[in-house]
């Protein structure tokens, strides 16, 4: 789930959640979802970037985003909750 956010000419994409059921992993579904969000952000809204948050403990997902050339901009302590670790965006 994602969305384009912004006003007038300043648009960007935001990844709210990318979830794939375990039995459908390794079918490139997350890649397909991200491709579509990036396409809509850049081609439809002329957006400048896509942002997201991911748990720092979610190494598999972080590797996927890094493979797509996403960068860690900042770490938000206790973003998800103090019991589940901090988020990174």
TrEMBL record:
Pfam families named among the record's database cross-references: Acetyltransf_1 (PF00583)
MF (Gene Ontology): protein-N-terminal amino-acid acetyltransferase activity
Highest taxon in the source lineage: Eukaryota
Segments forming domain N-acetyltransferase: 8-66
GO cellular component terms, A-Z: NatB complex
UniProt keyword list: Acyltransferase, Transferase
InterPro entries referenced in this protein's UniProt entry, alphabetically: Acyl_CoA_acyltransferase (IPR016181), GNAT_dom (IPR000182), NatB_acetyltransferase_subunit (IPR051646)
Protein name listed in UniProt: N-acetyltransferase domain-containing protein
Annotated source species: Tuber magnatum
């Amino acid at each position: 789930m994602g969305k384009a956010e912004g006003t007038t000419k300043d648009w960007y994409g935001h990844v709210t959640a990318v979830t794939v059921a375990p039995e459908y992993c390794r079918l490139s579904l997350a890649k397909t979802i991200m491709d579509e969000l990036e396409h809509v952000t850049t081609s439809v809204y002329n957006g400048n970037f896509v942002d997201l948050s991911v748990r720092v403990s979610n190494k598999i997902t972080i590797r996927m985003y890094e493979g797509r050339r996403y960068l860690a901009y900042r770490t938000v302590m206790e973003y998800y909750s103090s019991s589940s670790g901090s988020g990174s965006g």
